[in-house]
Amino acid sequence: MTLNKQDIGRLLAKQGILIAFIVFMIGFALANQRFIAIDNIAGVIRSSAILGVMALGVTFVVIGGNLDLSVGSMMSFSTIVVLDLHDKIGPALAIPAMFALTLCLGAFIGFLVGYLKLNSLIVTLGMLSAIHGLTLTWSGGKNMDIADKAGTWFSVFGQDRIMGIPVPILIFALLAAVLTLLLSKTPFGRKVYAVGGNGQAATFSGIPRARVVFYTYLISAFCVAVAGLLQASRSLGSQNTVGQGLELEVLAAVILGGASLLGGSGTVFKTVIGVLILGFIQNGLLLVGLDFYVQYIVTWAIIILAVWLDVAAKRGRLWSPIA
Amino acid sequence: MTDQTPVLRLEGIVKTFPGVRALDGVSFDVRPGEVHALMGENGAGKSTLMKVLGGIHAPNEGQIFVGDEAVTMTSPKHAKAKGVVFIHQELSLADELTVAENIFLGELPLKGFGRVDWGKLYDDTNAILKTLNVGFDAKTRVGDLSIANQQMVEIGRALTVSPRAVIFDEPTASLTDSEKVVLFQVIAGLQEKGVGIIYISHRMEEIFKITDRISVLRDGQYRGTLLTAETNEDDVTKLMIGRSLDLSRSEATHELGDVALEVRGLACGSLFEDVSFKLHKGEVLGFYGLVGAGRTEIAETIFGLRTPSAGTILLNGEEVRITSPIDAVQRGISLVPEDRKDQGLVLGMNCRDNMTLPQVDDLTAGPFVSDGAEIAIFDQYRDKLDIRTPGWRQTVGNLSGGNQQKIVIGKWLSMRPNVLIVDEPTRGIDVGSKSEIHNLIRDLASQGYAVIVISSEMPEVLRVSDRIVAMFNGRIMRDFTAEEVTEDNLIQAISGISEKVA
């Protein structure tokens, strides 16, 4: 069977991201041998881990039919809080305290979106700003640093290796595995798909829609807390704006992985793929000698491309005269 | 009317998609002033044929003639310019705009500098509305109109040109009986002007009431055209599905059991009040009434989707308070909702997951959902309900309407409910599946299930129910047994003509 124009359109719409990714990778590999060196690949995965952990949580929110644009500023909050408390109450107490505070933020968003049924875009956009203000209030606007950087065990999460593998990668992998099971194997996971796929039908099936949405935001906040821990542990000091802009990269990774912004589809594994695609493309751009700033433009272009292909896959062709 | 050139003629239309021959040599014609029914099961090719007529799909072979002229339609707009217009099943109106703006959408009359000529717009619109004999004017906001009146606006759209052929696609799907009468008058008016009508519907009563000829499609093939006056439902059905249906009421005699559900003086705001009835095990209780009579709202209240303002609900003799669907599911009440696509199914999910959704919490092995338990339930109800699907992994959205409905029924039946409420069990599904679902409901009753069937279709209620509750305006007007009910006294009861009988 020969490929006609329509078939090519359908193939592009369905597998476009993967095809684009392969083309990018081949191009980068040809342009710079270092791109496919083992240590470079490990480095990319390692530096993607923080973004990846956040994307795992947002995957639940997006499949549940909502958005979470607050994760970037929430991650700044977690990082600043755990660093500040580290010197005040010690790392053993600082970590659970930071998790508790971050989960409170997630619960608040979950309450507004789930139980009060407010639009998630507005709520989380507002929380992006509000949490940023909260972080600055907490820190007084100053950078936060651990006083005794050499003498704390707190650095294990961000800097150590276990059996030669960097701890952030291990944590990312472990969390991805646990959340895969939660999403694909448990009744709760099934309900997330149902609520995002058709909320009304979920209600008519006796599923507590508000509670399910609430939990997706708790999971997202938990992942943000883990990301904040990794970030703080890696740098042992931080600006107030460390997570700024990450919300869009996270969303890009989730959509790249193939989760629909309309809810009801996507998987944890696909999100991991999306995270890696984003990481490798950004790394490749640097290695071919482009300015760091170019990655902002490319990331944006990738988001647009991904959304376009998502819509195109639904209607079976790249362009349609009817909306 | 005899021996005139047909307004629309199709000759040997073939349309193929990769792997499918959706239309395979379809030929028929529509004469001026004729109402020509187009019938066929879901998937028989009716919609594809309409898309070919409307220029959305180009036929691979064959020719369309409008009058004497051979035409290849390129877009719905082109078709309209040629005098072939469509009244779609799903209304495509802008709620926030006025009737006039909707009717002339995309072709508003203009005066200098691209300004809209409002005076002409309203005059032209009112002229059209006058021929439709409706009770609203050009400046009414469409969102404020009833569904029936919105349909009139849709028809008004067709009349901005002088149409030669008008195609109605399931026009009565959401109309009440009295609204249908108005629609049929409009169709008769078009007929008098010599317009040819293609009328697509599953409803035999309507077909036999208003059409002159019936053309039938099956599996994309043209099966023949019958003169309505010289045929009957059975012949048409045979042509459509290749076999005849047993439409008689299966009179399986079985004993009624205890009272499964009793409702006393139930009320919900202004929606309905003073609703009392008893439902026994092994009994099918039909709820019949016009749209808006409060039938669906009663079901939703029993299912915990609405909070009653008065009254009590007793399950197996015990008073219960049901405040959410979660409560209802736990107490063994199942509701097959009115709208299967919006309320019944998650269309993007597979067949099995949809079916087990309400009980997924109970189908676990440790913390995880047990694949085996789920598949066992799916297989059992696929066989029991004869659901035709390639397998449980099939996305529900890809199934036919009848099979989708069976998935929803299976979903609630597999809960082994104390009370099964089925709201509009056969809306929008073809005659073959319809009769299977009717037989299924009768079977359930003989197995001892307590079933409530809510329907707007009188033949359906008459066929499946042991008792029928007639509702009018939020009140129960009368409670009939199967023996005492007739079409006449049922119509009287739901129109509020007969006195309320306690």
From TrEMBL, chain A:
Assigned GO CC terms: plasma membrane
Compartments (UniProt record): Cell membrane
Domain of life: Bacteria
Keyword Cell inner membrane: yes
InterPro entries for this protein: ABC_transp_permease
Entry keyword set: Cell inner membrane, Cell membrane, Membrane, Transmembrane, Transmembrane helix, Transport
GO molecular function terms noted in the UniProt entry: transmembrane transporter activity
Stored CDD domains: TM_PBP1_transp_AraH_like
Membrane topology term: Multi-pass membrane protein
Transmembrane segments: 12-31, 43-63, 93-115, 121-141, 162-183, 212-230, 250-281, 293-313
PANTHER family per the UniProt record, alphabetical: ABC TRANSPORTER PERMEASE PROTEIN YPHD-RELATED, ABC TRANSPORTER PERMEASE PROTEIN YPHD-RELATED-RELATED
Protein name (database record): Ribose import permease protein RbsC
Natural source organism: Roseinatronobacter ekhonensis
Lineage, broadest ranks: Bacteria, Pseudomonadati, Pseudomonadota, Alphaproteobacteria, Rhodobacterales
Gene: rbsC_3
Automatic annotation (TrEMBL), chain B:
Top-level EC class as recorded in UniProt: hydrolase
Primary localization: membrane
Keyword field contains Transport: yes
Annotated Gene Ontology cellular component terms: plasma membrane
Compartmental location: Cell membrane
Transport in keyword set: yes
Gene3D superfamilies: P-loop containing nucleotide triphosphate hydrolases
Keywords of this entry: ATP-binding, Cell membrane, Hydrolase, Membrane, Nucleotide-binding, Repeat, Sugar transport, Translocase, Transport
Official protein name in the record: Ribose import ATP-binding protein RbsA
Organism expressing this protein natively: Roseinatronobacter ekhonensis
Native organism taxonomy: Bacteria, Pseudomonadati, Pseudomonadota, Alphaproteobacteria, Rhodobacterales
Gene for this chain: rbsA_3
